[in-house]
From TrEMBL:
This is DUF6318 domain-containing protein. Keywords: Signal. Transmembrane segments: none annotated. Residues 21-53 are annotated as: Disordered. Residues 1-21 form the signal peptide. The keyword NADP does not apply. Residues 60-146 form the DUF6318 domain. It holds the Pfam family DUF6318. It comes from the Bacteria. Residues 31-51 have a biased composition (Low complexity). InterPro entries: DUF6318.
Amino acid sequence: MPLRNLSALALVATLALSACSSDDPEPKVAPEPTASTPSAVASPSASASAANDDMPDDEVAFIDLFYAAFTEAISTGDPAGFMVLADESCTNCKTLAKNLRAAYKNGGRIVDGDWTVLSAEPDLGDDDNVWEVRVRTARERWLDASGETVKTVAPSIQTVAMALQQDAAGWRVRELKLR
């Protein structure tokens, strides 16, 4: 099944790209997970423990932190900053990280990518700790090693469902889903 495109990698994302100027379909979102029992939470790594010293106590501050880390990852190609905020079960977080690494592979890069949270509201019709997050994505250009534009992603406003969970280490993104 073809997946919807997002404008900035992600979410998601990347969740997927929504307005590319080339036929290259990356990044793609993993298929929606099927219902399953929650997995056990793994113990945090040393870097995750260090990151938790500054972990926000409330969900909205955590969501802002996640998207700030994701925006940083777009500019560097290093997803570690947002992956430390994701649970091991977050399939779309892993997909976003993979797509970022691929964009920077062999000297490529992404310029002008920025994801800004416009609003974050609890999704009252869903299970606990699912948030409907509206994100503005800036126009971004994906460049190859020679500086040639591989694709251009138009700016947009995306709505992402963010499933959060809290454990002893703090908040984590359990999953992301483009709405």
